[in-house]
Amino acid sequence: MAAHEDTQKHKIDDNIMTETFSESISEDYKKLYETKERYDTIITVGKEPNIERIYAHSLILCTRSSYFHRALSDEWAEKKEGCFTLSKPNISTSTFKTILKFLYCGIVELRTQEDEIIELLVAVDELLIQKLNDIIQKFLIKNSCKFLQQSPVKMIHFIIHSKQFNELKEAYLETICRDPKNSTVSRVNHNNSNSAIGCDNSHGPSFGEGPDLHVLDGSRSWKYQAKSYPKILNVDSFMISFYEVFQIVSNITKKSA
């Protein structure tokens, strides 16, 4: 009798079928993202005049982001009319919607516009969404040459002054050293300070030691003096934090009469 039961059980187990419907689940979450049905969280994002209220579901936010898990906890959360309320004025509407779509649907579209992707990376880092953070950094590293060609000053200024993206810094520094595009690395001091550019209340911006270029505040007047700075032969001896980046937008030479 026992043997018969074991045989019968084995036959039943053989008839069990397991299937995964991940695509169907993804579509359901996408529908929830689009309809906002039964939302319980209202997030105000952006600054005037581009402020917008975003409607979401706390369960999804808390599951996908450790920041929201903390922010929507009983200890920190604020509620109004039965909904959690948050304010993120430092994140634009378009950036937050991109993040929200990733949280719900696992979908992100990255483009090589430096302003958009830098803002997205900073926001994702703040919201502690590590998976998307890794994706964006890999995209930036993969397209480092393109971003450096499009906007070298902005991109390098960002990675130098961002303390948390070490892998990104190293990758961009390696790209610069490998393919400098006629760049010359030199050391420039401004009045023995740590910066090459200076500015205070008594005058406009000044560049270099001396200074080389001095723009008088509140006027079109400026003065300069010719100076040169030694070329750095071993750029590997520099830490990336030593760098300030400048770009010549126009080079005009006037001949004396």
Automatic annotation (TrEMBL):
Gene3D superfamilies: Potassium Channel Kv1.1, Chain A (3.30.710.10). InterPro entries: BTB-POZ/Galectin-3-binding, BTB/POZ_dom, SKP1/BTB/POZ_sf. Residues 39-112 form the BTB domain. This is Btb/poz domain-containing protein 19-like. It comes from the Eukaryota. SMART domains: BTB. It comes from Gigaspora margarita. PROSITE patterns: BTB.
